[in-house]
């Protein structure tokens, strides 16, 4: 089976700090990482390849520097990596991004499965996966915690409020995965060295002649960010420090009752 | 596209396994605010099979009109059938705004519908307002793990779409005496275009039966719980308060709790009335999932734990001393 994994290079949001004076994100020195949920998608793809044979291709859209992340993906088991990169793609929202990626996927060939993380940790939208599925006109299975393959049928467990919904579909399908699906492996020194020598294919707008330039970049993006701001800091709360835990509990109950919360 | 043709604020009323989700009812209330700003109507969209109770709830909670699509193919939620029904409704009636709850199925449906309609969708919003200047919806949402808020507009395409985080807006008081016109649309989705099939549900709700995303009160435990058996204490407190038990990533990674109970960027995003964080340090990813709670109570031995920066009530103490007393005291209050 041939699997494509969509990945994104993101700033490690756990390392982002806010400059309290200017209220801006401090991004300097924040490492760029493979989006953690995409690492789960890649691991799922590599496990499926190991069990069923086939190929794993990783695809990303981004600047030249995303190549380092693609090499990491190769060290983690991908056979091939493709970077979609062009200035005209800049400023794309999820609809435009998914349109570009869907066109790149069509150019790369036929895939049985397209795996994505449930969302990227910078934008946190979770929209690109389903929107790719729509552009390609294929089945989508989102928030997936388990994948079973039998022939050309995929059966998954989807995370819902009520529990895990078991859903099946025929290939091809877009699948977005949650963290609990697996634990991504670490690369070996050998696989890292081999990945360093790997060639990364680059797709530019010129390689996608069928793309409608009106549908990409800022111009092709129906949503526009008008304003960003740091969230108002929660007013500092009440600190309860007592000699014993039970005294603190009594004090808390007193406060909760006074605030009519209990 | 003539934007002036698009009118009214639609709310998708999600239901699953016979129950109406709170988030749709919450959105009816906020939709009222958006609709009033442009002298428009609040319209509920209900898709399913045998869904009279869902329609009744929508009307009781503020829908002025109901658009109903019923059929065997809508018995289970499937992306393809529900997208087809929603897109056909939008094409016929042309709403200005479409609100969808940011549940997992809402976040499955929203992007598929938006991509088919070639319109903008803003994900997981926590703020909805109308711009005084343009009369467009100002969608506000967290990004970068909650480090940054962004306000987004979709000015040139319709409908303006957003998924909205459960629990952020409050439901109106229901009025079961209200009436509203119900328009039933015959929209059929051919079986061969429905590419997925629901075959089973493996139920995994908390002991109290309260789902974490719908709970008014959540009692969560983290690494400080020490071992899985200790979660019984949190369950007792949650049951007493009619709430649900949650967990931090550390507790889930340790195998103490199901990933379905996980609160945070990796798991569920919640905004209950009270969130108890017990033995949770408060990593940014956890805060991203619960900082919109009305009241946060943190219990942790470590006075330096970042959870205290987010807490309304911070108790620096051993949770195993605090929680049992808390349970006893609340029992006493309940007995009164």
Strand segment count of chain B: 18
Largest sheet of chain B: 7 strands, parallel
Helix content of chain B: 25-40%
Chain pair sharing the greatest interface: A-B, 84 and 94 residues
| Cα end-to-end separation of chain A | 56 Å
- Average pLDDT over all residues of chain B: 94
The rough form of chain B would be described as: globular
Order of helices and strands of chain A: EEEEEHEHEHEHEEEEHEEEH
Task: Determine the oligomeric state from the structure.
Answer: heterodimer
Indicate the radius of gyration of chain B in whole angstroms: 21 Å
Spatial gap, N to C terminus of chain B? 62 Å
Q: Strand arrangement, largest sheet of chain A?
A: 11-10-9-12-8-1-6-7-13
List keywords for this structure.
heterodimer, A: 262 residues, alpha/beta, nine-stranded mixed sheet, 6 helices, globular, B: 336 residues, seven-stranded parallel sheet, five-stranded parallel sheet, 9 helices
How would you sum up this structure in a few lines?
Chain A is α/β, with parallel strands linked by helices and 262 residues long. Chain A contains 6 helices and 15 strands. Chain A has a 9-stranded mixed β-sheet, with helices on both faces.
Describe the structure.
- The complex is a heterodimer of chains A (262) and B (336).
- In chain A, 27% of the residues lie in helices and 30% in strands.
- With 262 residues, chain A is of the alpha/beta class.
- In chain A, the strands form three sheets. Chain A has a nine-stranded mixed beta sheet with strand order 11-10-9-12-8-1-6-7-13, with helices on both faces.
- In chain A, helix 2 (67-75) packs across helix 5 (189-196) and helix 3 (94-108) crosses helix 4 (128-136).
- The longest helix of chain A has 17 residues, at 36-52.
- In chain A, 47% of the residues are buried.
- With 336 residues, chain B is of the alpha/beta class.
- At the A-B interface, helix 3, helix 4, strand 9, strand 10 and strand 11 of A face helix 3, helix 4, strand 7, strand 9 and strand 10 of B.
- Strand 14 (224-229) of chain A pairs antiparallel with strand 10 of chain B.
């Amino acid at each position: 089976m041939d699997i494509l994994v969509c990945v994104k290079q993101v700033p490690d949001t756990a390392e982002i700090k806010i400059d309290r004076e200017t209220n801006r994100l401090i991004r300097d020195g924040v490492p760029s990482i493979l989006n953690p949920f995409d690492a789960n998608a890649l691991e799922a793809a590599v496990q499926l390849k190991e069990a069923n044979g086939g190929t794993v291709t990783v695809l990303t859209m981004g600047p030249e520097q995303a190549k380092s992340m693609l090499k990491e993906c190769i060290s983690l088991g991908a056979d091939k990596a493709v970077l979609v990169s062009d200035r005209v793609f800049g400023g794309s929202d999820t609809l435009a991004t998914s349109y570009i990626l869907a066109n790149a996927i069509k150019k790369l060939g036929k895939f049985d499965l397209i795996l994505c993380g449930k969302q990227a940790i910078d934008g946190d939208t979770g929209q690109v996966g389903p929107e790719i599925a729509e552009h390609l006109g294929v089945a989508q299975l989102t928030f997936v915690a388990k994948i079973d393959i039998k022939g050309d049928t995929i059966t998954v467990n989807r995370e819902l409020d009520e529990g895990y919904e078991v859903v099946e579909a025929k290939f091809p399908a877009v699948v977005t995965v949650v963290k609990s699906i697996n634990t991504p492996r670490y690369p070996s020194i050998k696989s890292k060295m081999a990945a360093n020598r790997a060639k990364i294919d680059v797709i530019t707008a010129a390689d996608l002649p069928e793309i409608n330039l009106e549908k990409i970049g800022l111009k092709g993006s129906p949503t526009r960010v008008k304003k960003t701001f740091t969230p108002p800091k929660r007013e500092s709360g009440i600190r309860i420090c007592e000699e014993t835990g039970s005294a603190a509990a009594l004090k808390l109950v007193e406060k909760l009752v006074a605030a009519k919360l209990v | 596209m003539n934007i002036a043709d698009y009118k009214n604020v639609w709310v998708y009323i999600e239901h699953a396994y016979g129950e109406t989700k709170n988030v749709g009812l919450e959105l009816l209330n906020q939709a009222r605010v958006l609709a009033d700003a442009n002298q428009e109507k609040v319209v509920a969209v209900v898709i399913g099979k045998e869904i009279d109770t869902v329609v009744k709830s929508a009307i009781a909670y503020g829908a002025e009109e109901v658009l109903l699509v019923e059929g065997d193919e809508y018995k289970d939620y499937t992306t393809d059938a529900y997208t087809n029904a929603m897109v056909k409704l939008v094409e016929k009636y042309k709403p200005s705004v479409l609100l969808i709850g940011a549940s997992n199925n809402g976040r499955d449906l929203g992007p598929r519908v938006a991509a088919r309609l070639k319109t903008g969708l803003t994900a997981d919003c926590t703020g909805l307002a109308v711009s005084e200047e343009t009369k467009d919806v100002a969608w506000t949402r967290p990004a970068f793990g909650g480090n940054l808020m962004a306000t987004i507009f979709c000015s040139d395409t319709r409908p303006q779409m957003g998924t909205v985080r459960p629990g952020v807006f409050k439901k109106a008081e229901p009025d079961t005496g209200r009436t509203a016109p119900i328009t039933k649309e015959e929209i059929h989705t051919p079986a061969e275009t429905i590419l997925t099939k629901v075959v089973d549900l493996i139920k995994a709700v908390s002991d109290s039966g309260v789902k974490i995303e719908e709970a008014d009160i959540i009692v969560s435990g983290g690494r400080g719980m020490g071992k899985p058996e200790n979660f019984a204490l949190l369950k007792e407190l949650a049951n007493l308060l009619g709430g649900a038990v949650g967990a931090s990533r550390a507790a889930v990674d340790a195998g103490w709790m199901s990933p379905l109970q996980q609160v945070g960027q990796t798991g569920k995003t919640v905004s209950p009335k009270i969130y108890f964080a017990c033995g949770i340090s408060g990593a940014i990813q956890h805060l991203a999932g619960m900082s919109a709670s009305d009241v946060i109570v943190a219990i942790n031995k470590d006075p330096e734990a970042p959870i205290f920066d987010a807490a309304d009530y911070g108790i620096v103490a051993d949770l195993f001393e605090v929680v049992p007393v808390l349970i006893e005291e609340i029992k006493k209050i309940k007995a009164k």
